[in-house]
Amino acid sequence: MFYHRGIILGACRGLGGPVISAYVADIAPSEDYEHTIALYHTIADVGSLVGPILLGWLKDIHGINFPFFLGTGLFLEAIILFAILADETVSHERNHNIKQTENRH
């Protein structure tokens, strides 16, 4: 059962992480691109540092299952909120033009 929870949590991270990184890169203003990406990665790295410590502490209090359920739930919630609230970064017209260009080659 331990491995199943780890697989689900890993899948959530694998699905969520690259999408959000690409979104940040798309919405970053060109004049502040480097600072925006650096700030995003700093925040993500702080989360990667604090998260395991916090989840280890919660495991000691609530048992081995709790961190997996909490982590998976938080990742799923973040993915759902992102899908609902994030604005489209590529217009439909531009996306259509890109597809037409790809089809010509």
Task: Walk me through this protein's architecture.
By secondary structure, the protein is mainly α. The chain has one domain (about 1-85). The chain contains 4 helices and no strands. The longest helix is centred in the middle third of the chain and has 30 residues, at about 35-60. The model has no long low-confidence stretch (mean pLDDT about 80).
When the domains are counted, the total is 1
Tally of DSSP helical segments:
4
Instruction: Give the topology string: H per helix, E per strand.
Output: HHHH
Q: Which geometry do the CA atoms define?
A: globular
What is the assembly state of the chains in this entry?
A: single chain
Question: Could you give a quick summary of the protein structure above?
Answer:
This protein is mainly α and 105 residues long. It has four helices and no strands.
Describe this protein with a few key phrases.
4 helices; mainly alpha; 86% helix; globular; 105 residues
Write the layout of secondary structure elements.
Blueprint: H1 2-27, H2 33-62, H3 65-85, H4 92-104
Helix pairs in contact: 1-3, 2-3
